[in-house]
Structure formats: C-alpha cells, structure tokens
Amino acid sequence: MKPPEAKERRRGGVEKHAGPLSCAVGLVVLIGLYAIRQPLILSPFGLASLANVSVALALAAVGQTLVLLTAGLDLSIGAEITLINCFAATTMGSSALSVASVVVASLVIGLALGAFNGLVVAYGRIEPLIGTFCTSFIFAGSALIILPRPGGSVPDGFAAALTGNWGPLPFSLVLLAAAVLLVWVPVFGSRLGRYITAIGDDPESARISGLPVRRVALASYMLAGLFSAIAALFLAAETTSGDPSIGGIYTLNSLAAAVLGGVSLMGGRGTVMGPILGSFVLSIILNALGVFNVSAFWQDFIEGLILMLVLGLGGFRVLRAASWLAVLRQ
Amino acid sequence: MGEGGAEAAAKRPVLAASGLGKRFGGVVALQGVDLALYPGEVHALLGANGAGKSTLVKLLAGIEQPDGGEIRIRGEPVRFATPHAALVAGIATVHQELSLFPSLGVAANILITQEPRRGRVWIDGRALRRRARALLEGLGAGDIDPEVPVSELSLAQSQLVEIAKALSSQPGVLILDEPTSALSVAEVERLMAVIERLRTQGTAIVFISHRLGEIERIADRVSILRSGEKVGDFAPGDFSRERALALMLGESWQEGARAERAAPAATAAAPVLAVQGLTLARHFAEVSFKLRPGEVLGLGGLEGQGHKEVLLALFGVFRRGLDGQIELGGARLRPRRPRQAIRAGMAFIPDDRKSLGGFLGLSVSENIAITVLEGLCRFFLLSGAREASLVGGLVRRLGIVAASSRVALGSLSGGNQQKVVVAKWLARRAAVYVFCDPTRGVDAGARAGLFGIIRELAAAGSAVLFYSTDISEFPLLCSRVLVFREGRISGALEGKEVSEQNILDLSFREATREAA
Fold first, then answer.
1. For residue B366, what are the domain limits?
2. For B44-86, what is each residue's pLDDT tens digit?
3. ipTM > 0.85 (yes/no)
4. Same domain, B88 and B144
5. pTM of the model
6. B377 and B439: one domain?
7. Residue B49 in contact with residue B227, Cβ under 8 Å?
C-alpha cells in the first residue's frame, strides 16, 4: 500500500516548490546574461540596485499572494500603493516623531484600504475582479486629490534607512525579510493561515466545515493592504517624493510575479518564496529592456506581451497540470 | 417482444434497441436491454432509483454511447455521436432539467437554431411566431403567448414549451423523462391530454414516472428495469401493479426482511434533536420527528422527495424561507449558515466528497484538525504536537491508510478520504451526525467500513441521521426510517418493519391507494 502514496507525497513536495525553484534558476540565468552586457551588475552596488528595483514589486506580490491563496484577486494593489505613497510624501515632514507617526499611519491606512476591499468582496458579495477594480478607482482618485502632480518629499534619513546598504547587504532586502518574518510567518503559524489555504482549496468545503469564510477573506485583503503600505513607503524612500502615478504597474505585475512563482490563480496553492523570486525575475527582465536599449515606445508593448505570456502560462498550468514540471512531463 | 402478438407484428417499430449495455468505470449501469417503440404508442419505463432508466434515456438521446448492442431506426442501424445526431434521426428528449433560455421569448426558445430567416441572415419574426404558435396549438397550449420571455411562465407552461421545442423537429420518438414529478394534479391532467393527442398523431412516446397510477392510465406498454437489466415487460392491457412491484424489487420481495439486520436499538434517552413542522417551500412541508442519542434514523424514499433537503436545511444550507422549529440539545436552533449548526453540535458528511467536506489539496492532518484549530493553539500559534496527537489518535481509531498524515487528502483512496472527513467531525465530538448519501460512488469494502463507523458512533451514544439513495442500506443500519413522498413524511417504519419492500411500498403509497 505504502510505496505509491510515498511517491505521491514526494511528487507533491517537488510540485509545491516547482515555482520557486524554476524562478531561482531563471534568476541566476538572467543575472548571468545581464552581466555579459553590464559586468558592473555583479558589484555590491549593482546587486543592491537590482534588489531596490525589485523589492517594491516583491512586497506587492506577497500581498497579492495572500489574496490569491483564498481564491480571491486584488486589482487595487497598485492604487493602494499610489494613495499611501502620496499620503506619506505629503505629510512626513522632517522630525523623527512625524516620520514615525506617518509610517504608523501609512500602515493603518493600508489595513483600512484592504478592509474596504474585503467588505466589498466578502460581505458585499461583489466579484473580486469587479469589486477591487472599482475600489482601485476610488483609491487612485483619492491620491490625485491629495497630490495632483508628483511632489512632496521625505527626509534623507528616511530614504537612506530603506535604500542604503550595509556592505553587500542592501537594506531593502532586510525590509523585505522583516516584512515576511513579522507578517507572513505568524499568519501561517496560526489558524488564519490554515483557513486562508483551506478556503482557497475548496470554498464549499470551507462553508460545510464551519470556517469563518467571510472574516478570513476580509483578513487576507487587509494583509494585502498592509504589504501595499510597506511597498508605498519603500517607493517614497526610493524616489524621495510622492507620485500619483507610481503604483499603476504594480497591480498586474504583482499578479504576474505571483503566477511566475507558482501561486495558483484558483487558490489554495502557493509559497512565500515563489512570488518574491518571481518579482526579482520579472523586475530584472523589465529593467533589462532599458539596459539593452529597447526604445521606450516599445517597452510598454513588450511588457504587455510578457505579462500576457506569464499569466497565460499560469492559466494553462491551472487548467492543464499542477506545475511546470507536470507541463514538461507531458 | 413476442408478447405484442399480431398487433405488433402488423406494425413495425420506429425504434428497436437490442442488447444495449453501458458501463461507467467498473459499474454496469445497463446490460442487455431490448426495447421496441411503436408509432402511436406510449411506452413506460419503470424501476427504482439506479435501475438504469436514465442511462437508457441517455443512450437513446445520444448523450452517452452504448458499449454493446445496437439501436435501429425503421430497421436501419444507427450510432449517435452527439445529442444532435439523435435529434436529426428523429429522437427528441425532454429531460427533467429543462433546457430553455429564461430571458428569451417562447417562440425564440421553441425554434432556437432553426429560426425561419429572410435572406439567410435576418430572422423572420412573423414566421417565427406563427410557427411557434402552430406548435403550441398542436399541444392544446394556444394560450401561451409566443412573445413573452420563458421566465414569466409557470413550470408546467415551460414544460409545454420544452415539448413544443422537441416537436419542432417533427420527431418519430419523443422521450419524456419524469415529466410529471414537479407538476400539480391539474397540470398533470393537461400533460396527459397532450400525450394522448401526440399518440393519436402517431408519435412513439417513452414515458418515465414513479407514479403507477399515471402509468396505468397512459401507457400502452411497460418495461421494468432493475439493476441495469430489463426484468419484464407488459403488452397493452396486461399491466398489473402487483407484478410490476414484484419485478422492480426482485428477490427482496420474496425474502422479506433481511436476516443480517444489524440495526442498533434506540435508547429511551431524551431526544437530542426535535424537529416540529419544518417547511421549506417547493422542497418539503410539515416535517416533524425526534432523534434520540444512540439512534440511527433513516430518511428514505425515492430520489427527489425532499428528504435530502431536510438534512441540508437542518445544517443551515438554506439562508431563507425555512419555517417550523428545530431544537438541538434542548436549545432552539435557527441555522442560516453551516457554521451555526456546527456550533450547536451538528456534523455533516455529504454525498459528494470531491467537492463537499474535504480539502483535497490540504494534508490529512490539516483536514482533520480544521474544525478544532482553536483548541490546538498555544497563544495564537498552532501547536504541532497537539495537532499530531489528535490526528494520530483518530487515524488509528478509524484505520485510515495513508503513508503519513502529511500527504494530500487527494492522494488517498475514496474510502480513506471519506474516513478523513468523518474523522474531522469526530475531533469535534458532535452530538448529531448527518450522513447524506455517504456511500454514493464508494466501493463495497469502504461501505462496510463506513457502516461499522456509523454503528460505533451510535453505540457510543451519538445520534445519527442517515440518508441514502440506495434503499437496501436502510435495513442494515437504521432502527427507524421515515419515508418521504413529495416533500412529506408518508410513513414511519420501526424495528422489524424496516425493509426495502416496506420503504418502496410507502414511496408509492398514494398510487397504491388509488387502486384500492
């Protein structure tokens, strides 16, 4: 009896990590290709700059993953980032106290925006696709009211604290690791994480098993808002200002990074390393378009094609097979 | 087919099937069935649940392809790859589930895909309505306005529209799958008149119904199916209720009550669940019963009589419209969500374990622990040790076969998956266990294991509600059975009275009374 099930288990283990593993391989290959053209990328400064262009997307993608795991979808992540970025840049001031209180306020606003999404989707019973698309306009519109054009500022100390590096170790990676350790790890060590996965795996079973389905969905959108807020603060530090168009790209890119990292769009399946590595791969590809002298006019066009390919591949995998490995086996 | 005598010899059958067989996986759904349909005759199919009636209909309608045997239409052998092919060959089917588009008009529905056109592109609205009206009038349903959307019609009117749609291709054979099950007495009368009219027009009609009275009245010939085989037929004028029932039941008719009865006896303890006057429009009405600890109470009857919905209602699946009183453990319960029923002490093991009850992507351990995670936490973090000891104990107690409790539920065999779903509720120590058709699609060994668990639960003082589409399971498990017919309890059987024969008798009771 045992051998087939043991084999099943091994395969399950490999499949679970297929997304992160293939992203890790892809990342090494990409950095190698990049280095042929631009050897400086392998210096501590080069690696730090690669990390810096990827971390905001990684934070957004981890938030998106929390929602995707419940078989939901958050199309307002970019707008959340924009709104909080504009808020932080216009209110931060320069005293340590005001910086600290704006950081805390930004995180609270992130949770609140996520709660609004959760109420609309879980309690208002509006499809996530429609509901979060609508709230994204509310959030982006609010950002324009606060800050109609790029402006505002953040103190240099705040910027340096998030974007500097300590020897070869960029602070941005420390921020990402801290966010994962302080949010993801406790969530998945507690009931909430178990419920998030269960609801995504089979919502009907979750209902029949008496899980608090709506509250868990609400929590997942709130956590996504929290990660958006961290990403928004990081972007404020990186650009030392606010920009009412800064977040737009993160909605679709966070989705693509999660799918690239093996997160299922049908819910219930995904890791935290997958979307993070997926974000690095995606950011480096998009960044490389500039380095390889692709005309700015073509960059959006190519980006669209890449996203379509990644998300299409995700759909294909979801429909046809459990993972890339399964696709390759066919 | 010799029984038809001279008359049958004179007429040639419009459709003749011989030796039809169909397997689904390892299960034989139909075997060696012969059937001859003559123009201008109503041929009734009769049989208990799972006898093979719907499989036979699916083969004739081209929804499934037979594994053996052949179908001839006017002497020509045919094979239907699709339902459309059957329609083209002149076999139209009105299924139990209607296939109309509610927001489209009556005429548009009747002539869908064969709209009269002008210039090959533009739909000729006037001709469309005229042809639809002619078809409806042919059914004596000229009162239905061809222009109103189907969503505004009653169920009986929609059914007539569906029949008109089936007749639009001028079929030689019309199959009506349980057309009367959802109709009122007056509506049934009207449908009977329609069938008689079609018969005089020379259509061969296949009529399926559980109501013996209707069959006696309308059918020219009757074929009886049992366990996928045709066990008898009646030529015109030969039909007898007693013989039909005997044929449907098979050996159990002679055997009477089963010797191997192992139903646990009810205790005299106070009821843990009391239901009074429970009513849900269109599903069931005035259902009252009491359930005591240690008792296995069966809800029996033919499929679709509202008993399954009673169980779903108790578990809080229906948000609105529930009337009557439920008392669970002495407290009033008005469940609007399963979560409320579970908190009050109810457990639910559903029929479709692929989608309801288990999380196939989660591990065995995660599945079992999901209902009791509160108790497994230290501060707010889950304690792996507590989870492992809970899960380990239940895996041993139920004899769940898995390489480890960390493998995904989806990798286990069906029987073991079901044990995991039961283990999940045992972890919660529920007061009332509801088993809703738990043996559907489960093999014999797993079924025996599950019955063992149910008896053990009852012996340990839990109360069990049991529903199954397989009537033969009730005598093996239940100390008491409530038989449902058309949403009401038509009778209760206790102790030695619990037998397949008595359950079927009560299921057909009204029809039997008409004869008396």
1. 354-429
2. 998 876 788 888 999 999 988 999 999 999 999 999 988 889 9
3. no
4. yes
5. 0.76
6. no
7. no
